[in-house]
Amino acid sequence: MMGVLKVSMMQVLGFVLLFGALASPTWAKVHHHTFVIEETNYTRLCRTKSILTVNGQFPGPTIYARNGDTVIVKVYNRASYNITLHWHGVDEPRNPWSDGPEYITQCPIQPGGNFTQRIDLTEEEGTLWWHAHSDWDRATLYGAIVIHPARGTTFPFPKPHKEIPILLGEWWIANVSQVLANLIQTGADAQISDAYTINGQPGDFYPCSRKDTFKVLVEYGKTYLLRVINAAINNELFFAVAGHKLTVVGTDASYTKPFTTDFIMITPGQTFDVLLEANNPAGADPSAPCRFYMAARSYSGAKNVSFDNTTATAILEYTSSASAPAVPPQLPYLPGYNDTNAATVFTAGLRSLASKEHPVDVPQTIDQRIIITVSVNLLTCPGGTCSGPGKNRLAASLNNDSFQNPPIDILGAYYHSIAGDYGTDFPNRPPSYFNFTADMIPQNMVFTKRNTEVKVLEYNTSVEVVFQGTNLLAGENHPMHLHGFSFYVVGRGFGNYDEKKDPLGYNLVDPAYENTLGVPRNGWAAIRFRAANPGVWFMHCHLDRHLTWGMDTAFIVKNGKGPQERLLPPPPDMPPC
Ligand SMILES: *[C@@H]1O[C@H](CO)[C@@H](O)[C@H](O)[C@H]1NC(C)=O
Ligand SMILES: *[C@@H]1O[C@H](CO)[C@@H](O)[C@H](O)[C@H]1NC(C)=O
Ligand SMILES: *[C@@H]1O[C@H](CO)[C@@H](O)[C@H](O)[C@H]1NC(C)=O
Ligand SMILES: *[C@@H]1O[C@H](CO)[C@@H](O)[C@H](O)[C@H]1NC(C)=O
Ligand SMILES: *[C@@H]1O[C@H](CO)[C@@H](O)[C@H](O)[C@H]1NC(C)=O
Ligand SMILES: *[C@@H]1O[C@H](CO)[C@@H](O)[C@H](O)[C@H]1NC(C)=O
Ligand SMILES: *[C@@H]1O[C@H](CO)[C@@H](O)[C@H](O)[C@H]1NC(C)=O
Ligand SMILES: *[C@@H]1O[C@H](CO)[C@@H](O)[C@H](O)[C@H]1NC(C)=O
Ligand SMILES: *[C@@H]1O[C@H](CO)[C@@H](O)[C@H](O)[C@H]1NC(C)=O
Ligand SMILES: *[C@@H]1O[C@H](CO)[C@@H](O)[C@H](O)[C@H]1NC(C)=O
Ligand SMILES: [Cu+2]
Question: Which reaction does it catalyse (predicted)?
Answer without folding.
Answer: 4 hydroquinone + O2 = 4 benzosemiquinone + 2 H2O
